[in-house]
Specification:
- By secondary structure, this protein is of the alpha/beta class.
- It has one domain: Ureohydrolase domain (Arginase, Chain A).
- 35% of the residues lie in helices and 13% in strands.
- The chain has an eight-stranded parallel beta sheet, sandwiched between helices. Strands 1-2 form a two-stranded antiparallel ribbon.
- Helix 9 links the parallel strand 7 and strand 8.
- Helix 1 runs parallel beside helix 3 and helix 6 runs parallel beside helix 7.
- The chain is globular.
- InterPro entries: Arginase, Ureohydrolase, Ureohydrolase_dom_sf.
- It is an enzyme of class 3 (hydrolase).
- Keywords: Arginine metabolism, Hydrolase, Manganese, Metal-binding, Urea cycle.
């Protein structure tokens, strides 16, 4: 079988002769699943499509991954660019602009405009309550606290992501629990994040469990072709379905996103909208202290930038942030995404979370990460996930939600030195 994502693109490129004026991906088989998912043809055309797909897949299944990518590119070019994507990154136009990413400069983020998206999603793990995170954070006064930074800030709450779970008609992927929910929710989230960024706003995504980072980062990639990610977490979230001890997808998002790990996956129904195109070299971990053996092997194999709590203790959080940014964005050109799991903080700082691990970041260190990310001028998107108001005492919940608000306000530009006054009229001359 072809690697995940390649088979769908190959078949689409070979058959698709859609509207070449389209500004996005237009599936050549509307309302149908192609390639290996074409299991119930309904007409003669469907049978012909399936037979052609099987022939094409059979001719490519023995090619190396790089050769497959080259074939995909050539077929896409021959089909008039109908896919609207490239392996270098998402393109918002059908033809793409062909620019060299190394020549692009990161767009200055408009921090005067902020968009908030709630994702009350809990199907990426087994503990109930994490879906209540967005509501709890909003009710703690998040918008008011952000507005206190400056009355000129334009803050828009886009509400919560809604979705209907896909019907896979019996098609399953082993050891990926609730995949139909994860795929459906993340697809809608991806569209919403792109909309927020296209509206020239800093995008704040409130989880929900960490499985939602697949959609959040995918949406960022649709908006910006070159993205660097800081993944703040006690866990690496780097398992595949064949290595995960639990099958919970909130432990798999980095592996789903990274292009270097594309060949480690089978075909995943319902995820054809998501292409693993971000390089693992453009991601840095901060706060790791609970890493599975397979995850450690992958981190070492690919030389992933991983700053665990040992490195935080050894170098200090200031130097860790400096090194992380220097490695994932050495020229200061990439759009920055911070995906922040509240369990990166020590359990004493944030007890109401599902997979807490002792010995984590202090709240001061956590806030510093957000302040430094904001200070780059390139922070475009932030995820704050895994706040679970159903865990712990009311005091535990209050402490955890307050920590989340402090982190998000720092990401929006609040300074612990004091925010800048909009007028000096009250100061006596």
């Amino acid at each position: 079988m072809l690697p995940r994502g390649a088979e769908v693109k190959v078949i689409a490129a070979s058959f698709g002769q859609g509207d070449k004026k389209s500004t996005g991906f237009q599936p050549p088989f509307k309302g149908k699943v192609i390639a290996s998912s074409l299991s119930h043809p309904e007409s003669r055309d469907d049978y012909e499509d399936q037979a052609a797909a099987s022939r094409l897949e059979g001719s490519l299944q023995m090619l190396p991954r790089l050769a497959v990518v080259r074939v995909v590119r050539q077929l896409t070019k021959q089909s008039g660019g109908v896919l609207g994507t490239s392996t270098a990154g998402y393109a918002t136009s059908a033809q793409g602009d062909g620019r060299d990413l190394s020549l692009l400069k990161a767009k200055k983020i408009n921090y005067e405009r902020i968009g908030i998206v709630g994702v009350p999603f809990d199907k990426g793990q087994r503990k109930k309550g994490v879906g209540l995170g967005p509501k709890a954070i909003r009710e703690a006064g998040l918008i008011d606290h952000i507005q206190e930074i400056s009355p000129t800030l334009n803050i828009k709450d886009y509400g919560d992501i809604q979705y209907e779970a896909l019907n896979f008609n019996g098609r399953k992927v082993g050891n990926m629990k609730k995949l139909e929910h994860v795929a459906s929710c993340n697809r809608n989230l991806s569209h919403q994040v792109t909309e927020v960024l296209d509206d020239d706003r800093l995008c704040i995504t409130l989880g929900g469990d960490h499985a939602i980072a697949v959609g959040s980062i995918d949406g960022h990639l649709h908006h910006s072709k070159d993205v660097a990610v800081i993944w703040v977490d006690a866990h690496a979230d780097l398992n595949t379905n064949s290595t995960s001890p639990s099958g919970n997808i909130h432990g798999m998002p980095v592996a789903l996103l990274a292009k270097e790990l594309c060949d480690y996956w089978p075909y995943i129904p319902g995820m054809d909208w998501q292409e693993p195109i971000i390089s693992i070299k453009n991601l840095a971990y901060i706060g790791l202290r609970s890493v599975d053996p397979y995850e450690r092997a992958i981190i070492e194999k690919f030389g992933i930038n991983a700053f665990g709590m040992r490195e935080v203790e050894k170098y200090g959080i200031k130097e860790v942030m400096r090194m992380a940014l220097a490695r994932i964005d050495p020229e200061g050109k990439r759009s920055l995404h911070v995906s922040y799991d509240i369990d990166s903080l020590d359990v004493l700082e944030a007890p109401s979370t599902g997979t807490s691990v002792r010995g984590g970041l202090t709240l001061r260190e956590g806030i510093f990460i957000m302040e430094e990310a904001y200070g780059t001028g390139r922070l475009a998107a932030v995820d704050l996930v895994e706040v679970n108001p159903a865990i712990g005492t009311p005091e535990d919940v209050r402490r955890t939600v307050e920590a989340a608000v402090h982190l998000l306000v720092a990401a929006c530009g609040h300074s612990r030195k004091g925010d800048i006054a909009d007028t000096l009229d009250l100061i006596q001359k």
